[in-house]
Structures are given as C-alpha cells and as structure tokens.
Design brief:
Chain B: Pfam families: DnaJ (PF00226), HSCB_C (PF07743). The complex is a heterodimer of chains A (155) and B (233). Chain A is an alpha+beta fold. Helix content of chain A is 56%, strand content 15%. The radius of gyration of chain A is 20 Å and the shape is elongated. The radius of gyration of chain B is 22 Å and the shape is globular. The chains are: A alpha+beta (155), B mainly alpha (233).
Chain lengths: 155, 233
C-alpha cells in the first residue's frame, strides 16, 4: 500500500516537474524564435548537382547540431531561391529559417555581409544561443563558397 | 498531526546533523565509525547496521560500479552492477526510514542512474573520461578542427541519419538505425580505446571531438527505442 502510494506521489511530482520545465522552456524562447520554429520558412532541398546551386553544410561538435543551407543563383549573381534543413535546437532552426528569408533576392555579395549578430538581434537570442546564429552565418558563407567553386570549375 | 512538533524537532536535528556530516566526511553519520577514504565511497556503512551513507562527491563513476577505469567497459557487467546497486538504493526501499536516509537514498540512486547513463554510452563515456583525466581536455575537444573533407563526411552522415529518423515508423527501422549507428561508431570506439590505453590524450581529444557530432543522433535513437519499447542493452 504505502509503496504504491509513494510511487504515485513520485509519479505526480515527476509530472509536475516536467510541466514546470515545459513552461520554462517556452518562456525562455522569444516569440520570433517560436514563430520560425513552428512555421519554418523554406524548408527543403535543392538539387545539389545543379551547377547554379550552392550547398553549405555546417555543424557544431559542442551541441551536435547540423545545418544544411542551399542557394540557387541566377546569371546575375542574384539568389533566387534558398532552402534549409536543420537538425538541432529551436534557435538553430529559427536562425537558419531567418537566414534563408533574408538572403532570398539578395546578390551573393550582399548575402555575405549578413552577420551572426544581425540574426541574433532579430531573434533576440540569449548569449548561450549565439553559436546557433554563428552556425547560420557559416552556412550562408559555405553555400556561397560552394557555388563559387562550382562556377570556377565549370569555366 | 499529533507528532507535528516532534517532527519539526526531528527536522531541526537532521539539518544540524547534515551540516556536521558535510564537515566530517569520513565518519558514519549514524554509528560514528571512522571511515577510510575507500569506505566513505561505499553506499552503506560497513558496520552491522549497514546504514546508508551520503554520496562522497569525490567518487568517480568507475569506482561506483567497481569496474576498472578503462574505455573498454564490459557493458553486461556494468548493467549487472547497476541493477545490484539499485536493488539496495532505490528510494522505494526507504519509505519507512528517516528523512535523512530518504534523502541519501534519493541522492545515491540519482547518482547511480546518472553514472550508468554516462558509462553505458560510448560518446558520454569518452567525454567523461577526458574530464576525469583533465577538465581542460573537453574544451580542447570542442575547439579541435578536423580537416574540411573529414568534417564534411561526418556532417553528411549525420544529416542522412537525421533524415532517416524523421521517416521512421516501425520498430524494425529503429533496430536497423541502431545497427547502422553502431557500425559508424565502432571505428571511433576502437581508436579511442587505443588512445586511452596508450595515454595518447591528443588522439583521444581528436576522436571525442568527432564522436560528439553524433550526440544528437544518439539521443534521438534512444528516444525512439523508448517510444517503441526496445531494450538497448
């Protein structure tokens, strides 16, 4: 009897604790992060064999997040499409989602000017999540770099 | 309710008891027997009463399970020792004991759980061993940069594994994924075992840094195994 009772109490306290952590987790994310997390823009893939597509693949060993960002560039150097696929925390997903939104319509040179601090500021990322926006900046650079290398080889 | 005042008094006593314990770590809180350093890392006082002891914070996970501090852990033995410890420490066994003993049982079993979870996982075990040898090593492991080609290969692998996980609907697929991840991790584990046994810590840091990339995939696999009720020991 008493064992059963303690088990139930333990179960309930565990339940309460988990409810608590859910509350904390949602309140610590800024609503902009949650918006991008729940309705991510431009999720998907582009054909990486296409010579007008550049693919950036980056990751951080500290958190195990991985981010793939692809761009499609027209003959004038304008980014006409961007897609991403991110496996990681909410901030990493939001950072890459925002990055694709921002680079679409820009030239590759303009896109290179996007800094991780811009992304972090827009999403109100806390200091511990700054590396997520850094990952997004690296992904943009890696994608543009891949596109440029492809073009050089083609020439 | 009748015992309300005595309970309060007891609580007060426990608090003062507890403070004393943290000051004199090497005496049993109950029988006052002087404990050697080794004995203080036990879970129970070696006297006849076998009172539960507080956690000695200096204990490492290998000592806790009474296994050699080697990367190559015998997981079956580890699991056996884990269950044996839990049979003695689980808070359910202490429901009729004093508050202090309840507290010790909760702390001891939570440590045992955490230690088991760490040593069972090849990734966490590597990180933990680096930490034990030198707390600065893991910071170095994060800073370590693989060659671009190597990093690219690892990231592509992780991306693919994550995509597979997204599509999983059946228990059979979970088992296939577990096998695949094991195949990927095995060469790392062998390398790490050699590095640790040769005390080649530079090498160990570099291998752990690669393994850490797979941490999330490993966690996602564990969640799936839990969801589909698959034993992973």
């Amino acid at each position: 009897m008493s064992v059963q009772l303690t088990r139930n109490i333990l179960k309930n306290t565990r339940l309460l604790k988990s409810l608590d952590s859910v509350k904390i987790a949602t309140s610590s994310y800024h609503e902009k992060v949650i918006d991008h997390y729940e309705n991510p823009r431009n999720v998907g893939s582009l054909n990486k064999k296409d010579e007008n597509v550049g693919t950036g693949l980056v990751g951080a060993p500290a958190c195990g997040d991985v981010m793939k960002l692809q761009i499609k560039v027209d003959e004038n150097g304008n980014i006409i499409d961007a897609k991403f696929k991110t496996f990681g925390c909410g901030s990493a997903i939001a950072s890459s989602s925002l990055a694709t939104e921002w680079i679409k319509g820009k030239t590759t040179e303009e896109a290179l000017k996007i800094k991780n601090t811009d992304i972090a500021r827009e999403l109100c990322l806390p200091p511990v999540k700054l590396h997520c926006s850094m990952l997004a900046e690296d992904a943009i650079k890696a994608a543009i770099n891949d596109y440029k290398t492809k073009k050089k080889v083609a020439q | 309710m009748v015992f309300g005042r005595t309970e309060n008094l007891k609580k007060l006593l426990f608090i003062s008891d507890f403070n004393r314990i943290s000051l004199t770590n090497y005496n049993c809180w109950s029988c006052k027997k002087e404990l050697t350093e080794k004995e203080s890392k036990l879970q129970f006082c070696p006297c006849e009463i076998n009172t539960i002891l507080p956690v000695n914070n200096k204990i490492n996970y290998f000592e806790l399970f009474n296994i050699n501090m080697e990367y190559n852990v015998d997981v079956k033995l580890l699991t056996k020792n884990f269950r044996q410890l839990m049979k003695k420490l689980h808070p359910d066994l202490f429901t009729l004991k004093s508050d202090l003993e309840k507290k010790f049982s909760a702390e001891q079993s939570s440590l045992v759980n955490k230690a088991y979870d760490t040593l069972k996982s090849p990734i966490k075990r590597g990180v933990y061993m680096l930490d034990l040898i030198d707390p600065h090593f893991n910071a170095e492991a994060i800073e370590t940069h693989e060659s671009d080609a190597e990093k690219r290969l690892i990231l592509m692998e992780i991306l693919e594994l994550n995509e597979i996980i997204d599509e999983i609907k059946q228990p059979k697929e979970v088992e296939e994924l577990a096998e695949r991840l094991e195949e990927i991790m095995r060469p790392f584990e062998d390398e790490l075992e050699d590095a640790f046994s040769q005390k080649n810590y530079k090498k160990a840091i570099s291998v752990v840094s690669k393994m850490r990339y797979f941490k999330n995939v490993d966690e996602r696999l564990k969640d799936l195994q839990l969801k589909f009720n698959i034993q992973n020991v």
